[in-house]
Structures are given as C-alpha cells and as structure tokens.
Amino acid sequence: MSAPQLVVHRDKELMAQAAAARLITKVVDAQSSRGSASVVLTGGRNGNGVLAALAAAPARDAVDWGRIDLWWGDERYLPEGHPERNVTQARAALLDAVPLDPKRVHAMPASDGPYGTDVEAAAEAYAAELARAAGPENHGAVPSFDVLMLGVGPDTHVASLFPELPAVRESERSVVGVHGAPKPPPTRVTLTLPAIRAAREVWLLAAGEDKAQAAAMALSGAGEVQAPAAGAYGRSRTLWLLDAAAASALPRSLYPPASP
Ligand SMILES: O=C(O)[C@H](O)[C@@H](O)[C@H](O)[C@H](O)COP(=O)(O)O
C-alpha cells in the first residue's frame, strides 16, 4: 500500500492538462522499459477531461498507441454505443483520434451483448479477460496496470463502488455486477478494490466544490466501506489530483499552502 500524495492545481482545466502530460510520460516510460503499457480508464467528467486534454496535447504522438492496453474501471450497463456508456464517451474524447490496436481496447460488455441482462455473467467475462492478460509476474488475476485512473464522486464513490453497497466489500473477485447504484444508471459493472490495488499507480481525480467533503473524508482516515475512495491505492503510488475547489476542505496538514 502506498500512502496518498496530493497535487493541487488551480482549476479543473489545468488539472486535466497536467494529468494528461503525466499520463503521456508514464506510458512512454512503460513502453520503453516493458515494451507496452496498460492503463485503466474511468468514466465521468474529470476522466473524460483528461482524455480530451490528451487528445489536444502535441506530445500525444510520443505514445506508441498500438502498444497500449486500455481497460475500464467501471461501465454503465447499457447497450453498445449508448451515449452514457463510459467507452462511448472515451471514444469521443480520445480513442477515435489515435491509432489504437482494437484487440487491446478492452471495453466492458454492453447490455445488448452476449450476456443480455445478466450483469453478473458480464462481470465474470470481464474478470476472465483480465485473468488471461495477467502474466505469472502479476501475482494475481489481473495485470499490473501501469496507471489506473478513478474519478471521485461527491459521495466518495470510485469506479462503481458506492458506499455501503456489496461491491465495495468484495474481497475475492476482480469484477462484479452492481445493482441499485445511486448514480444513474443503477446497473453497472465494476472492478473491485483488490483489482484496483493491483495497479502500480492509482490516480484519483477530483475537481469542483462538490468534491471537497468527499476528498477530506477519504483522506482523513475514513473506512473504505463508508468512503470507497479511501480504499483505492496503488502498489507503488497513490496520487490524488485535485483542483483548488476540491482541495478546499482538506486539513492544511495534508498539503502545503499555495504561494501568496
Ligand atoms: O461511471 C461513472 O460515472 C464513473 O466511472 C464514476 O465513478 C465517476 O468517475 C465519478 O462519479 C466521478 O465523476 P465526475 O468526474 O463526473 O465527477
């Protein structure tokens, strides 16, 4: 477990641009040292903001897009191509604009796919896909993702792990179905905390006033069942990328004050 490090940016645009720059560097480094990179994407405005900033970054061409595996932390269980699916939004923000290898774009199943309304079967299928990609050196049923990004919800949810719902307590499976999520749509597929913790680096993104209490709670010792974001950490690094508004309720002891 790595203790959280905080980086506070002036506003959400700068936060997205800085995260995109950071992601380019990480991916290029992973490709140089291991031949390929694996990145887990998140849904939500901030995750999509990072992808849009990456699409606009001149340095995006430094990435070898054919040698990157893309996975998702969660998916809204909706039909293929639905505008509210996380993968649809990621495609619009970045993926359609770069030369990815389609075999390495691991979208979560859709509700009109082979599993139909059986979200548990969809979750099992995604767990099996992750297991196939995990090498012996990965020590588990999921690959050692280079970077796993998570948007933080105002209730401290990450991926589709909502406070007190069964998915956040899952300790065995890497992927589960979610019913009755408080954020629409209610049916979702999500990585579990053990799968998230297999990542080398976990980056939590929080911007806006409505995230201030969530960030303060998750970073002040709350339990992961009440505050799922508190249970999201990487093996070598846990990075909270915040804008000033989301950082506004944090105890000053957690990060140095901005220069006057
Ligand atoms: O399916 C989703 O909606 C998500 O993956 C979810 O976990 C999201 O990342 C947070 O709710 C933060 O979303 P915002 O960045 O839009 O606040």
From TrEMBL:
SUPFAM superfamilies assigned: NagB/RpiA/CoA transferase-like
Pfam families documented for this protein: Glucosamine_iso (PF01182)
Sorted UniProt keywords: Hydrolase
Leading EC class: hydrolase
Record's catalysed reaction(s): 6-phospho-D-glucono-1,5-lactone + H2O = 6-phospho-D-gluconate + H(+)
E.C. numbers: 3.1.1.31
GO molecular function list: 6-phosphogluconolactonase activity
Pathway noted in the entry: Carbohydrate degradation; pentose phosphate pathway; D-ribulose 5-phosphate from D-glucose 6-phosphate (oxidative stage): step 2/3
Source organism superkingdom: Bacteria
UniProt domain Glucosamine/galactosamine-6-phosphate isomerase: residue ranges: 11-240
NCBIfam families recorded: pgl
Family in the record: Belongs to the glucosamine/galactosamine-6-phosphate isomerase family. 6-phosphogluconolactonase subfamily.
Biological role: Hydrolysis of 6-phosphogluconolactone to 6-phosphogluconate.
Protein name as it appears in the record: 6-phosphogluconolactonase
Origin species: Streptomyces macrolidinus
